Amino acid sequence: MKYASSIALTALLALPLAASASDQRELQGHQYVKNGSNWEQVGANGQRYRVNPHVITVKFAETATRSSEDALHEQLDTSVLRRARTGFVDIEIPSGEDVFEVIDAYLASGSVAIAEPNTFGEYTLVPNDPSYGSEYHLPIIDAEEAWDTTVGLPSAIVAVLDSGSEFTHEDLGFGTDAYQNVWLNNGEDAWSDPDNPSTGNGVDDDNNGYVDDWKGYDFSSGNNNSSGPFFHGTAVAGVLGAKTNNGTGIAGAAGGWNGVGALVMIAGVGDSFPDGSAIDDAILYAADMGAHVVQLSLTVGASAAIDAAVADAQDNSNMVVICASGNAGSTTMPYPASNPRIISIGATNASDLRAGFSNHGTDLDLSAPGDNIFALDLNDGYNFTGGTSFAAPLVSGVVALMLSVNPDLTHTEVRQILHDTADKVGGYNYNWDATRPGHSFELGYGRVNARRAVEASGGLDIFRDGFESGNTSLWSAAIVD
Predict the structure, then answer these.
(1) DSSP code for 23
(2) Please, are residues 203 and 189 in contact by the beta-carbon 8 Å criterion?
(3) Which of 74, 182, 238, 333 would bridge with 242, disulfide CB 3.0–4.6 Å?
(4) Are the C-beta atoms of 242 and 249 separated by less than 8 Å?
(5) Rg from Cα positions in the chain
(6) Distance CA 279, CA 291 (A)
(7) What is the distance between the alpha carbons of residues 479 and 234, in angstroms, rounded to a whole number?
(8) Cα 433 vs. chain centroid, distance in angstroms?
(9) Nearest Cα residue to 392 out of 202, 217, 162
């Protein structure tokens, strides 16, 4: 097959600006500055995130009643967009209103415990040169050896919170294979045309608050999920879940073996850039709908609502949350990878060295190949791309393999296994911090190793026990050449 030329994208970073006192704000420990008519949140590493001028998020005090909340919304001419069970409410504010003036009004009411702006972030990818061979990233992490035990089961569900994914792609959706690695909501009626979300019945059949979410949901626009115009979410989904050994395209880390592998739950959180107000709702949706892993390849301004959703999903649904570390080459971790509950993933290159663009440092968990990755593209295409965006889903795919052989692993155990089984590559100092033996400043605990992670999860023992006992239900997903 002849493939398209490489994708080249350039991240545009705002230059530092001097600001008067009236153009600066501090809220909940976060710094904001005004750039022209737009507010921006300044991240720990100096990166700036444009504040959403239309949506704020509040959490009412426990003493507030629904009637007093409604009266406040009416007084301020605002409207409720979404309510999360964590108590956070997304609120649409009138066009032209200053975000912080509305926030101040909510806080001054005495009925609100937290009020914060939301930010638009960016998906974590960088330009690259397509001169390397296709999919070096799978053999380098011993994926083939891991596949001797499991190639990924549909019982392992990974929610991809991204720009939307092309669920019709030949190497992810139905294609010519008559099977797909796309998660389906069995409580929702199927669309009459399985490739067209507008052909749903317009009813919330399972009463989960989302209409026609048969193949996931687009939280940024409030519609049943469809692929956004940006290739990013499709490429991310393919790295972890592209159909494997099906004679088409590429192999995903947990893509099955000419049959259904781990399932990709599609949750759109913004087409061209991630919308911070949608991310917490998408995390909670993923937890409620049975996902085991949340895959984030994005950065966005810090958010109490997102922190609360991550805590809820982990404490109540044992969710593993994985996030790309970002591509500024910085030693400061951006949000949400900086959340200590989240497993942060840096990028390596084909030489098992830290990719120059990869953020790293004290808070990095581990790394995975992310430079010059051959991935899915829009319109049934394939292409080379790169960034920590594509290292993170490789680890999410490895976690799907781990959960395929041992679904009882806790999110804490998954993190520890990933740390313990990572390869100490690159010649870096893995004992630079006496309080965390085995951790390097450049790659965290090392570069992920799929075979070792699966074996440490109990996969090798399960495979051997099934083979020796003749109980094929224990090892029917194993591939023996």
Answers:
(1) G
(2) yes
(3) 238
(4) yes
(5) 22
(6) 15
(7) 27
(8) 29
(9) 162
